[in-house]
Write a structure and sequence with these properties.
The chain is of the alpha/beta class. It is built from 21 helices and 20 strands. The strands form 4 sheets. A 7-stranded mixed β-sheet has the order 13-12-11-10-9-8-15, with helices on one face. The longest helix is centred in the middle third of the chain and has 23 residues, at 343-365. The mean pLDDT is 93.
């Protein structure tokens, strides 16, 4: 066996993932044996795909649309017999099965969810709310289960837990805890699944027989998304499909899985064949969000701490421990908008958050001008775009923006040319100040070896130039009655890739402080694609996007190679991936590495942002990911917090977070990275395997 078959890092369960599926089995109206075989066929297919938890539609065993046949004893007897057969066959199947069936108890019939695992009925959950309006008549046949708490029901030869107070929890897989509600339950104002989530369920299941009419699919999406978001959980929904009676209704077999408001997987509706909709749910992400969201925990307290009275039905899941892949959409660029139908709206929103924030600061302080350093790179370009749009919307001339390009020892002709082209294209007040003479004098005054002709390009050499540029900008702003717009971005702040104090870490207002490098690249590209400015501006922006990211503080080598930021601190696309998962979700480094490996190991697979350039689609192996992640952890946790603790004001842009000590991120400047580095090292497989 290979390392990937045996090392726990490659098993998704190690990282808290649970493979959930919705199933639409074959159905024949009122043919219980046929329907049971359909349930088992779907279960076998799910077993082959290593599914942990399989959800079926409401009353899948009897059929839903059988009306008064639910009151026929022969049908109810057949249901009980086929449950016994399903239980027996399940001994050899991995998935926990959750299917619908009508069951009798104490002279009543309940519309139930039956939970089966490895040859055992774990419990039965009755439907709480029975629709009895328009086309629905469920109260004609069923008793509601709202008050069924602490009860049991005879299933075969055994009494098993019965009630709406049940949670099902894997004893050997942390985070695998699920609750159940049935169809109409989540149309009610107080869905019982909410209590199950407050009691500890990370996954909610809905067995549904919702018939289809125009627009109802959107309504189901809305409710499922809202339930997963409001209850801070994953939510799986499975509706009845082809094979149900069409006497007066029709069925589409819709299956979908949401996690924290994100659509993770969706079935093909109106499919004539049995179907599985599969997704791996990140229970650790769910639990991390609950730790952050005190409203969720306050709601649990306000609801009387349901965890104290819900019954937990524990079972041993017995996962294999092998590499079974990861069936889950992973965004390579988590800060970049990825919804095709909302792309323009998302970019417009991100861009205008910056523009509106800057406008408000201008209105509050009424400066005579805005001062900005223009390098010809991405960050200063985007800051200028934001400033220009702000001035346009305020009705002020763009000449109230004073742009300065300040070439130093390593400034290339390309970036200097781009800086001038950019300033001219925007029509701002533009000047050039060559800092090489002043920088040389400062290096001489402090006794730096470079002043004596030695090619010493250390941090001091770099910071002299970065500091002088910022010093000039602050003095120029004072001279002209304005203030300095910061150009540094979120990615640089995360990595400490900025010069503290009198350097690019400081400004009067940092418009890019909440925007990572990958989003800046995408927003600049968006402005050219949506004609935010004229063609002259767009042409310069296109050239800037094609330029190597470089601080241009160290002269090019003999081979002509310029200083490359990403060769020093790592690819921004990886660093932004790490940043999102560490800051937004607090995930352990091994979890981040596992996600990054699945996201980036194959450029031909997975999701790319819309219109992403083909030539820019990279891939990375695990060793490369681990190496850059280790460097990220050292920089982020180890020595750069003091720069973030002294940040100027700047707007939060993305739900992924920002690093202002007055906003999303509060951390000590004296912390060390040892804990995170040790966790990563302990969890990784041998990388030469």
């Amino acid at each position: 066996m290979s390392g990937r078959d045996t090392h726990p890092f490659f098993d998704m369960h190690t990282h808290g993932f649970v493979r959930v599926a919705t199933g639409t089995p074959k159905v024949r109206t009122a043919d219980v044996a046929h329907n049971a075989e359909g349930i088992l066929e779907t279960a076998r297919a799910a077993h082959d795909r290593h599914v942990d938890l399989l959800l079926y539609p409401e009353l899948a065993l009897s059929s839903y649309a059988v009306d008064d046949l639910h009151l026929q004893v022969a049908l109810l007897d057949a249901v009980e017999a086929e449950i016994a057969r399903i239980v027996e066959v399940s001994r050899a199947l991995d998935p926990v099965l959750v299917f619908g069936a009508p069951l009798r108890r104490n002279g009543r019939i309940y519309n139930c969810a039956v939970v089966v695992a490895r040859g055992e009925v774990l419990g039965v959950v009755p439907k709480s709310f029975l629709p009895n309006y328009r086309e629905y008549y469920e109260k004609r046949w069923f008793a509601h289960g709202r008050d069924c708490i602490g009860l049991t029901i005879k299933c075969g030869a055994r009494e098993v837990p019965f009630g709406t107070d049940l949670l099902f929890e894997a004893s050997d897989l942390a985070g695998f805890v699920f609750g159940v509600e049935i169809c109409e339950d989540f149309w009610s104002p107080n869905p019982p699944g909410t209590l199950a989530a407050l009691a500890g369920a990370t996954i909610l299941l809905n067995l549904s027989a919702s018939n289809i009419v125009i627009g109802k699919s959107d309504e189901r999406h809305m409710l499922t998304r809202a339930s997963s978001s409001r209850s801070v959980c994953a939510y799986a929904y499975s509706a009845s499909g082809h094979g149900e009676s069409t006497t007066d209704l029709a069925w589409d077999g819709q299956g979908m899985i949401y996690e924290l408001g994100d659509l993770m997987a969706e079935s093909q509706r109106f499919d004539l064949q049995p179907e599985l909709c599969v997704c791996d749910i990140d229970t650790q992400r769910i639990l991390a969000e609950r730790m952050r969201m005190q409203t969720f925990n306050d709601a649990a307290e306000a609801a009387g701490r349901p965890e104290d009275w819900y019954r937990s039905v524990r079972f041993e899941h017995g996962r294999s421990g092998a590499d079974i892949g990861l069936e889950r959409p992973i965004r390579r660029f988590p800060f970049v908008p990825n919804r095709a139908d909302k792309l323009d709206d998302d970019c417009y929103e991100a861009f205008n958050i910056q523009v509106d924030a800057l406008m408000r600061r201008i209105q509050a302080t009424n400066p005579r001008c805005l001062t900005i350093g223009i390098s010809g790179g991405l960050d200063s370009t985007h800051a200028l775009i934001v400033a220009a749009k702000a001035m346009d919307r305020l009705g002020r001339p763009r000449t109230d923006i004073r742009g300065y390009t300040m070439p130093g020892f390593a400034t290339s002709s390309d970036t200097k040319s781009n800086a001038w082209r950019l300033m001219k294209a925007f029509g701002i007040a533009a000047e050039e100040i060559d800092i090489t003479g002043t920088a040389r004098l400062m290096l001489e005054n402090i006794g730096h070896a470079f002043a004596d002709g030695e090619p010493v390009y250390d941090t001091t050499f770099e910071n002299v130039q970065a500091g002088l540029r910022t010093d000039y900008l602050f003095r120029l702003a004072s001279q002209h009655g304005g203030w300095v717009i910061g150009t540094g971005d979120l990615s640089e702040l995360a990595l400490g890739w900025c010069t503290y104090g009198v350097g690019d870490q400081m400004s009067h207002y940092g418009v890019n402080a909440g925007v990572p490098k990958t989003l800046i690249q995408y927003l600049i590209r968006w402005t050219t694609q949506t004609a935010q400015f004229d063609e002259g501006v767009d042409a310069v922006l296109a050239d800037i996007l094609d330029t190597e990211i470089s601080p241009e503080l160290v002269p090019a080598g003999e081979d002509g190679q310029i200083q490359s930021t990403q060769s020093i601190i790592g690819p921004y696309e990886l660093n932004d991936f790490f940043l999102h998962h560490v800051v937004r979700w607090g995930q352990r480094p091994s979890h981040v590495a596992f996600l990054a490996w699945h996201a980036w190991k194959d450029a031909e697979a997975g999701l790319w942002p819309i219109d992403f350039p083909e030539e820019a689609k990279n891939q990375y192996d695990l060793a490369t990911i681990a190496d850059w992640l280790e460097k990220f952890l050292k920089r982020f946790f180890g020595f750069s917090q003091f720069k973030r603790s002294a940040l100027p004001n700047g707007p939060k842009v993305s739900a992924g977070g920002a690093l202002s000590p007055r906003g999303d991120w509060r951390a000590p400047s004296d912390s060390v990275a040892d804990t995170w580095l040790a966790e990563l090292a302990a969890a990784l497989p041998p990388l030469d395997d």
